[in-house]
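Whiteboard transcription, Tuesday session. T.W. wrote the structure tokens on the left side:
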């Protein structure tokens, strides 16, 4: 099971996330603006249906989602934001390192590099409450 994040209908602008990393990314993004109910709804729908089609969102929401994803990733990678992954039962150094690799690859995708240039293989996706270990 995974979630596809799609920036356009071009397959090179889509990526399938396997494992808990996409849910963690959504949680990390929501920490930046926990009152954005539209973004929260979009992430909950993505979790339920396995797809976040950013290009199909209302333009204002699509811009906020892109900006917040980029802001969260940049903050986590530079150390100015602490990811919630460190609070998870499986949030050890290896998992955090893998998560950071995935985040770097997402930034590359946002910057326009094709998704085929990298692989986002993570462990099987646990339940939303992260009770299982990867």
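and on the right, the sequence the group agreed on:
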């Amino acid at each position: 099971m995974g979630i596809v994040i799609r920036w356009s209908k071009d397959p090179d602008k889509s990526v399938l996330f396997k494992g808990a990393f996409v849910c963690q990314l959504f949680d990390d993004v929501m920490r930046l603006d926990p009152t954005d109910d539209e973004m929260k709804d979009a992430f909950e729908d993505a979790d339920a249906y396995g797809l976040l089609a950013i290009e199909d969102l209302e333009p204002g929401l699509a811009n906020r989602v892109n900006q917040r994803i980029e802001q969260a990733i940049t903050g986590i990678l530079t150390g100015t934001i602490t990811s919630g992954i460190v609070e998870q039962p499986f949030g050890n150094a290896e998992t955090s390192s893998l998560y950071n690799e995935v985040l770097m690859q997402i930034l590359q995708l946002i910057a326009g590099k094709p998704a085929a240039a990298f692989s986002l293989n993570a462990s099987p996706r646990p339940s939303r409450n992260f009770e299982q270990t990867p």
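Someone added at the bottom: Residues 116-134 have pLDDT under 50 and may be disordered.
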